[in-house]
Specification:
By secondary structure, the protein is an alpha/beta fold. It contains 15 helices and 8 strands.
């Protein structure tokens, strides 16, 4: 029996623990808010997704240090901007024998590091068993047991295969990809493009615009990813175009929703104040814009999203400028 810990009990962590429970696999959820842990323990209902009822083999814990110490597999299911603090504060409880799985999709603002790099930065280069589990997926559909595909990515193939086996089921199909950098970049940057997609929805543009945005968006992701050393083929897979499609089009997408409200004329501050969950693309837009400048990458959509979010650029004016850029060859 493996001791499986979810650090973070938000919608995605809850859905993944539920998916394991349906396979008969036990797991424990830790959440920073003790009141939320008590609520879920007593009601067996997720605090954000009311139709997510936890089976008996999902446990809850308030004690993060003890939970980490006894865990064999630890799933980091918290926003990417919070991961360094959690690891730093609990560094002495982690072990190199554990598999550490990242399921968040973001790039740290100050360091511009992906999550796997943050883990190594805090725990040391000897910590090898790092996996990123990513792909086109919404918690709301996973708990309905809708067929879903993900990628288990790691430089350590043994660990990647263990996570593939752990999460694969009749409704979750997990593939292997050794390009963890590409998988993490695809998962993070597509959130920024999804905000742009929502902006188009808010303005009232149609399918032509959305198709153009997604096509040019995946090109931007590939431009930066290739310059940073990721494999171009990764961005044509589940964690690239697949994840972009689901995040840019879905009613469940928090990033698309933020963009939609921006497109309707609402301010970013007012939108974020009303949200119960985190839209990773907002903070990642800052990191992506800095990486764009660092690597001199051609990313006009991501640049425009950053200017709209943080420099109060008018969305319609941004679209006008994108459409009137210097004409060029597609590829």
């Amino acid at each position: 029996m493996q001791n499986i810990l979810f650090i973070g009990g938000g919608s995605w962590g809850g859905a993944l623990s539920y998916s394991l429970a349906k396979k008969g696999v036990d797991s424990t959820i830790w959440h920073r808010d003790k009141n939320i842990i008590s609520l879920m323990q007593e009601s067996r209902v997720h605090y954000l997704i009311q139709n997510l009822n936890f089976p008996k083999n999902v446990s809850f814990s308030n004690n993060i240090s003890k939970s980490i110490e006894i865990a064999d597999i630890i799933i980091l299911a918290i926003p990417s901007q919070c991961i360094r603090e959690i690891i730093k504060n609990n560094k002495k409880y982690f072990s190199e024998n554990q598999i550490l799985v990242n399921v968040s999709k973001g790039i740290e603002n100050n360091s511009l590091m992906t999550v796997s790099d943050i883990i190594i930065d805090e725990l040391g280069c000897s910590y090898k068993k790092i996996v990123t589990l990513s792909g086109p997926s919404h918690a709301e559909e996973v708990i309905k047991l809708n067929p879903t595909t993900l990628v288990s990515s790691s430089k350590d193939l043994v660990s990647a295969k263990k996570i593939q086996s752990l999460f694969s089921s009749t409704f979750l199909r997990i593939y292997i990809n050794k390009d963890i950098l590409g998988v993490e970049l695809g998962g993070a940057i597509k959130n920024v493009i999804a905000i742009a997609s929502g902006i188009c929805d808010g303005i009232g543009y149609g399918d032509n615009t959305k198709a153009a945005l997604l096509t040019r968006g995946i090109s931007e992701i590939g431009n930066l990813g290739s310059l940073m050393g990721a494999k171009p083929s990764t961005f044509q897979g589940l964690s690239g175009i697949g994840d972009l499609i689901v995040t840019a089009l879905s009613q469940h997408s928090r990033n698309r929703m933020v963009g939609q409200e921006i497109g309707k004329g609402k301010s970013l501050d007012s939108i974020l104040k009303k949200m119960d969950m985190v839209a990773e693309g907002v903070k990642s837009s800052i990191s992506v814009n800095e990486l764009r400048k660092k690597y001199n990458a051609d990313m006009p959509i991501c640049e425009s999203v950053h200017n709209i979010l943080f420099n109060k650029k008018d969305p319609k004016q941004s679209v006008y400028e994108l459409m009137n850029r210097e004409l060029k060859i597609e590829n």
